Amino acid sequence: MTEKKGRVFSGARPTGRQHLGNYLGAIKNYVALQDDYECIYCIVDLHALTTLETTENLRQNSYEMALDFLAAGIRPEETIIFIQSHVPEVTELHTILSMVTPLGKLTDLPTFKEKARQQPHNVNYGLVGYPVLMTADITLYKANIVPVGIDQAPHLEFAREVVRSFNYRYQTNVLIEPEMKSTELPKVIGIDGVQKMSKSLNNHIELAATPEETTQRVMQMVTDPQRQRRSDPGRPEVCNVFTFHKVFSPADMVAEIDVECRRAGIGCVECKQRMAANLNQHLEPFRQKRAEYARDPNYVWDVLRDGKERASKIAKQTMIEVRQAVGLP
Ligand code: ADP
């Protein structure tokens, strides 16, 4: 085996099937980084508890997420995929890190404020501590690199500060300051053309959707708001459909649409149809692989069990070092 450059960790909440935002913002890097890094990808079910009204779908959602990871190209022979709560050391580290975390920093985070606005009836303690648990996730596995979408940037910066505080407070270098790694498209906009693509906003396109469903969602995409009639010239630079063309269409088509849209040579309907066809073509191997894995659920659960064993070993070792550094008897 070739020497790896370091360790990668990332997590995503098991809120259901993954969408194009997750894929283009994070999973693409999960896959690419496997070549050079030892990778650990976590289905963060404890994090999901901060926002879920009900937990009845947690198990099924975790399974669906593992299917998405595998189908996208995560290689479980090398890479660890596991469920967060299966390795409980993270909760101990979370508690220890919470003692070096100023409360004001947490309540000032824009991500917390946004969540508190979204669920004013349920501003729970876990919601405030979310970034501390995330820091525990990353540092428990001594990750150097964290591939995530741009929405996670404040959390990464926060994690780095907590690591510095911990290492300074206990005069140690046990915890590693992680670096964020984003893709070329760190913020994918939803089909509404305005907000971040997100399942909770229902402006998403699922990776595992059928070609028909995918096309239907693409046809609902909001384009350049100034282009109201077919004869109006468009502005590709503000059109989300064009952003997707740049990712999924061949370069000559992208160049052609760029020109034709500006002189109203192509309408939004045709433009979307062509993008949907390319997107569907791009997703076809993913869908086939996903269907293959779905035929053998036991295999998927075995992957998660094996991931748990491998993750546990690393977690236990880190906690020995952390307890020693802190001076816990
Ligand atoms: P979490 O709450 O743990 O971020 P999500 O399922 O919302 O869970 O996101 C999983 C990953 O996908 C994260 O790295 C997140 O930054 C990324 N992501 C989610 N939505 C988008 C988006 N619209 N654009 C870019 N990246 C995204």
Entry summary:
The protein is mostly helical and 329 residues long.
Description:
- With 329 residues, this protein is mainly alpha-helical.
- It folds into two domains: 7-187 and 296-326, HUPs (Rossmann fold, 3-Layer(aba) Sandwich); 211-291, Tyrosyl-Transfer RNA Synthetase.
- Helix content is 54%, strand content 7%.
- The protein is built from 13 helices and five strands.
- It has helices spanning 20-33, 45-48, 58-72, 89-98, 103-108, 110-118, 125-140, 153-169, 211-219, 240-248, 251-262, 268-294, 297-326; strands at 7-12, 38-43, 80-83, 145-147, 179-181.
- The protein has a three-stranded parallel β-sheet. It has a two-stranded parallel sheet with strand order 4-5.
- The longest helix is centred in the last third of the chain and has 30 residues, at 297-326.
- It is globular, with a radius of gyration of 21 Å.
- The structure holds adenosine-5'-diphosphate.
- The site of adenosine-5'-diphosphate (ADP) has 20 residues, from strand 1 and helix 1.
- Adenosine-5'-diphosphate is lined by residues 11-13, 15, 21-22, 25-26, 44, 47, 148-149, 151-152, 186-188, 196-198.
